[in-house]
C-alpha cells in the first residue's frame, strides 16, 4: 500500500476544484493580479481569495504584494509529486494490463489447440 503523503493530498485537494484548475491555467501564461483572476470566475473576491489560499497552501502558486496589489504566479515544479505518483501508478496498471493480455492470448491459443 502506498504510504500516506500529506503534500500529495494537499495537491490533489487543490487540483480537485474546477475554479482552482482554471486559475492555474490562467497563471500558466503569466502572473496575474488577484482582481484579474477573480473577473472571469464570476465569484466574489473573498471566495477567490479562499481558492488562492488553497493553491498557495499546496505550494502551487506564490503571491507577492506591492502596495494594495497582490500578484499571483504559478510554481510549476510543485506538480512534480503528482507527476511522479501518476507515473508510478501508470506503470503498475500497464504491467497489470500486459499480464492480462498475455493471459488472454494464452487462453485463446489453448482454446484453438
From TrEMBL:
Transmembrane segments: none annotated. PROSITE patterns: HTH_ARSR_2. Residues 1-94 form the HTH arsR-type domain. This is Metalloregulator ArsR/SmtB family transcription factor.
Amino acid at each position: 500500500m502506498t504510504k500516506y503523503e500529506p503534500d500529495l493530498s494537499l495537491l490533489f485537494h487543490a487540483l480537485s476544484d474546477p475554479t482552482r484548475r482554471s486559475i492555474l491555467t490562467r497563471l500558466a501564461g503569466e502572473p496575474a493580479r488577484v482582481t484579474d483572476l477573480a473577473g472571469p470566475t464570476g465569484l466574489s473576491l473573498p471566495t477567490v481569495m479562499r481558492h488562492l489560499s488553497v493553491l498557495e497552501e499546496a505550494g502551487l502558486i506564490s503571491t507577492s504584494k506591492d502596495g494594495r496589489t497582490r500578484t499571483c504566479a504559478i510554481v510549476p515544479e510543485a506538480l512534480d509529486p503528482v507527476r511522479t505518483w501518476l507515473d508510478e501508478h501508470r506503470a503498475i496498471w500497464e504491467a497489470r494490463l500486459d499480464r492480462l493480455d498475455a493471459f488472454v492470448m494464452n487462453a485463446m491459443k489453448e482454446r484453438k489447440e
